Amino acid sequence: MQSFRRLTISTLIAVYVLILVGGIVRSTGSGMGCPDWPKCFGQWIPPSSVSELPENYKAVYSAYRAKKNERFADYLKLIGMNETAHALLNNPAVLHESDFNPLKTKIEYINRLVGVTIGFFIIAVFVVSLKFRKSNPKLTIIAFCSLVLVIFQGWIGSFVVSSNLTPWTITVHMFLALLLVALLIFLLHWSSGSDHLPSSLGFWWLLASMALLLVQTLLGTQVREALDHIADDIPRELWINEIEGGALSIHRSFSWIVLLVHVGLIIRLHKTHGLKAFPLTLILLILGTILTGVGMAYFAVPPFLQPLHLLLATVTFGVQFLFLLKLNKRIFSLS
Question: Does residue 328 have a pLDDT over 80?
């Protein structure tokens, strides 16, 4: 069980590394560094020069993505998202092909390599969990769910590329990553053998804090979408002024609510024996998330702050969720 726990911790760390790398991909505009998936320009090892590509490579990969989007649209129609499917097929910007950029190609390729590594980690977690399929079957069930989720995440990732980073697909991709984090933390909790904590310590405070953080994360995706619409048209120094109001104002104001509720939670917990590390970790993460957001607003959205802001928010979610599992609520014991 200790080996299984160490493997799960390693996998969780790898997922956070992928979230960080994914943030770097977004902040550097490298998401379309490889216009196809899973290969990169039709190769397992990406090209380093445009001379390695055919002269009509833009037309080739635009046509490739158009065909893939037709399949994606069919899936969307099956689940009733007809308007979204229509928009995907009739938006000429979706098929716009950027000039080859070797640096962006390398960044996106590294992102994919990290993703593949996580896939192998998840397979290993599932294989090892089979040892406990009789003694602790919930570990095997959640490990299997993690494996299915990673496969689905990869499938969705292919459509993120084919749709030319359509904002809502990126949002879905990110929240699936948070779901994977939650499943891995389930495995950590159940494999640790630690006792539950009494629910009086603040179950509902913590649940409210998590809900508010997820809402704030969703609002943050709206700000990112607004930036995506203007990023290619105006200098970075003008981004914040251009989107001032709307989603940005709501996201900024809502951060105060998130902070105040977390302060209330921490006040409730800080005197509890054995829990001093959790309140300190949580407040540092929340403050770090807010300060990186402030830094983006006042310093022209520096590229290095975007992935850091996202990473801190997702680590905060993970810490919250782990503590939530430790509270004595039957819904999380599955026993």
Answer: no
Q: Are 59 and 149 in contact (CB under 8 A)?
A: no
Residue after which a domain boundary falls, among 170, 194, 218: 194
Which residue is it, tokens 């005197």? Answer: 271
pLDDT grade, residue 335 (50/70/90)?
very low
Domain that holds residue 256: 196-335
Phi/psi of residue 40, nearest 5 degrees: -125, 110
* The predicted structure's pLDDT at residue 168: 84
Residue 4 sits in the same domain as residue 102 = yes
Residues 124-148 have pLDDT tens digits of 999 999 999 888 898 999 999 999 9
Which residues have CB under 8 Å from 234's CB, separation 6+? 242
Torsion (CA) 8, 11, 13, 17 in degrees, nearest 10: -170
- Distance from chain centroid for Cα 92: 27
Positive or negative torsion for Cα 183, 172, 248, 23: positive
Residue 186's alpha-carbon distances to 107, 181, 257, 295, in angstroms, are 31, 9, 28, 33
Distance CA 171, CA 151 (A): 17
**250's tokens:** 């709501």
Where on the phi/psi map is residue 291: left (φ > 0), alpha (ψ -120 to 50), or beta?
Answer: alpha
Mean per-residue pLDDT, 181-193 = 88
> What domain count does the chain have?
2
Same domain for 183 and 308: no
Task: Report the distance separating Cα 29 and Cα 34, nearest Å.
Answer: 12
Contact between residue 243 and residue 223 where contact means Cβ atoms under 8 Å apart: yes
115 and 148 in a single domain? The answer is yes
Same domain, 43 and 170: yes
- From 152, 178, 194, the end of a domain falls on 194
DSSP E strand boundaries for the chain: none
